[in-house]
Fold these 2 entries.
Entry 1:
Amino acid sequence: MSVAFDGALDDYIQHLRVERGLSVHTVDAYAHDLTRFVAWLDDEGALGQVDEARVAAHLVTLSQAGLSARTQARALSSLRGFFRFLVQEGREPLDPTELLEGPRLLRKLPALLNRDEVVRLLDAPSGTKPNRIRDRAMLHTMYAAGLRVTELTELDLGDLNLEEGFISALGKGNKRRIVPIGAHARAALVEYLATVRPKWARPASRACFVTARGKAMTRQGFWRLVKRYATAAGITKPISPHKLRHSFATHLLDGGADLRSVQTMLGHADISTTQIYTHVTGDHLHKMHERYHPRG
């Protein structure tokens, strides 16, 4: 199979960005995987000559380089998407990845905070200092709506409907979903929007969460805040913003929410992605049974 890479990669990246509407981070990951493959082909003197054996050999080199099974699987997924695109565009007759299988992945249960830890984390930015009012609003909003960190930092004022208690989140693939928030998050947002944002935000800014310099809060900046408040709250387990999302999902299921509703609130396209949380809930129920059942 002779592949004309000249221009094909650029066209595919443009397709991912514009037609598929994937996030910048996802597109960058695909581009990294594909350019690494092209560079490897060039080193092998096989640029343009691609078949199933060459793709498999490339995956072997990734394994030999010590890259994780997850990274290898993502590389194969990137290549598979690229070659399917070429076939669909009529540029190539065959997909050399069609029969290849990626490495088996052990699916890890998502780490989460228990209810007490969540309360301590949300209460950590107490007081009336402007940055603490903003941080309190961000933490409450993320947990209340189960947002991804990018969804949180990219919220703008038009995404908020505080009268009705809803947030419109822009998720993966530029898909929007409406998520309800509770009274605590609404109160924290109202306080921040009334007392802090008007003083910090630039006149033309639509970003919901801003820094004291008027710029939109970044993913990295929020990650540092979460880590600092977790330390202040005495939480010793590894922490990340995504743990609040995991905790949101698990606590809903523990409380009796149905899987479809949680899937919708999380913005998962496939319910199998959401079902991993049922394992956490099942483990919780098993422990409760052992603790409280007379014959447990």
Note: The chain has a mean pLDDT of 88.
Entry 2:
Amino acid sequence: MKTIAIVEDDPRQRAHYAQALREQGYRVRDFEDREQALHAFERALPDLAILDIILGAEIGGGFEICRYLQQRDPYLPVIFLTSRGNEIDRIYGLQLGAWDYQTKPITFDYLIARIVSLFRIHDRSNRRPEGGELRTLGKLQLDIASMRACWDGHTLALTPTEFDLLHILTERAHGASYDDLAEASKQGVVENNTINTHIVHLRKKFKEIDPLFDGIRTKYGYGYHWVCR
């Protein structure tokens, strides 16, 4: 049974989501603020976290929880579910490592579909079936089946979206357009600025391993190009 944590300061919304998820067979732990959630996460991490951003008087409480969870487990799926739908918040949430960002109101059927999808991706990324497709391009190794990437022998802690963008970049010998990258992200309508933010975060993860990394080049007005072949 998967455990889902819900951090939401509105008691009616929190109770509604919790009850509905329990009816779907999930174990649910719900919290009203950052302090409660972090205290519980010190003892045990959930399998997935659904976070509001504004928690009581803390304007960015959900962001702080996401940062904590990503430090504990970079592969733990996080969904932001919030009324804050501006692009800056969306980009920042993705930069922190969230796997998804949804704005209220949202139908419960759609939320469940997103949760099922993220669990499927997470389970696949933690499974290494025999005969999985391995691709090597210079220092980069991609395990397509498990959605894992290594650079120079070191594992890159990528979100599913970051892995998908890296995968499409390595497949396009002459560069991936913004349309290619938006389609690969599987996030519906995606602005170019959001793609740019993902690429900035992807480059940063490479540079944490290799400060001289320069394998993702910008093709101005078009998209990006992977050059390490």
Note: Residues 218 and 224 are 5 Å apart (CA to CA).
